Amino acid sequence: MAPSFDNETSLFNFVVRDGNGVKGIVDLGISKVPQAYIQPPAEQINKRNASKFVNHGVPKELLDSLKQTAHNFFGLPPEKKAVYRKEVSPSPLVKYGTSFAPEKEKALEWKDYISMAYTNDDEALQQWPVECRTPFRYGYSYNLITRRNWRLVVKVPQDVNMEKKGEWVAIPPIPGALVINIGDMLQIWSNGRYKSAERRVRTTSTKSRVSIPIFTSPLPTQKIAPLPQVVEKDGAARYREFLFSDYMNNFFGNAHDGKKSLEFAKTTSA
């Protein structure tokens, strides 16, 4: 029976002092990776703003179906997509558009998007575009959009670039993996301990590209502020209290400019 290495000292001695290394652990036939090699998700995300996850339970065929559904929708004739333009959409759950805020931007973004909010199964099946309902029957809801993460945590397919210390870092894709990003709300709740991720996608001249983020966000009427226990530890709140709906209105009411939307919530002393 292979040792479990629950004792950090015994693991250190075996791997480092005795020179066995990781290969020695593998050769023992262990059934799970020792805890010392596992970085807690919270610590990992705190350092990187985003992490890739495998073994998440989402079938690969569902992910492939989502991407194909996106291509199918955006390949529809303009008049069929225009029905869902945010100014005239028959459903408050569905909004189709291009760029971010084209009426306010100095330079338009090279993207089209459709956003589909989920409230319950019945409304989604009744109000989402017919072309987008098949993947939903798997039991998942989704959003087809490319942009910075203004909510809590986002799951997106891979092949994106993340901003890190002023530089854009490519995230190499892993087949079937998901990328989980930190959004603005978690940055505010944590009083700045967790930093929201800024990301970008790059297209090519040879084929179309889709991003499929799934946003997890508060209710519009929910009040947002740093958690009291975090403020007590930090000594001061870096963000004021506000309604989530007010934050959304400010976010979508202006041209996108990096993480400038966080200025809406910052205190004067932050």
Automatic annotation (TrEMBL):
Keyword Cell membrane carried by entry: no
GO MF annotations in UniProt: metal ion binding
InterPro entries in the cross-refs: DIOX_N, IPNS-like_FE2OG_OXY, IPNS-like_sf, Plant_2OG-oxidoreductases
Pfam families to which the protein is assigned, alphabetical: 2OG-FeII_Oxy, DIOX_N
Keyword rRNA-binding on entry: no
Residue span(s) of domain Non-haem dioxygenase N-terminal: 54-129
Keywords: Iron, Metal-binding
SUPFAM superfamilies (alphabetical): Clavaminate synthase-like (SSF51197)
Name of the protein this chain belongs to: Feruloyl CoA ortho-hydroxylase 1-like
Organism: Gossypium australe
Lineage: Eukaryota, Viridiplantae, Streptophyta, Embryophyta, Tracheophyta
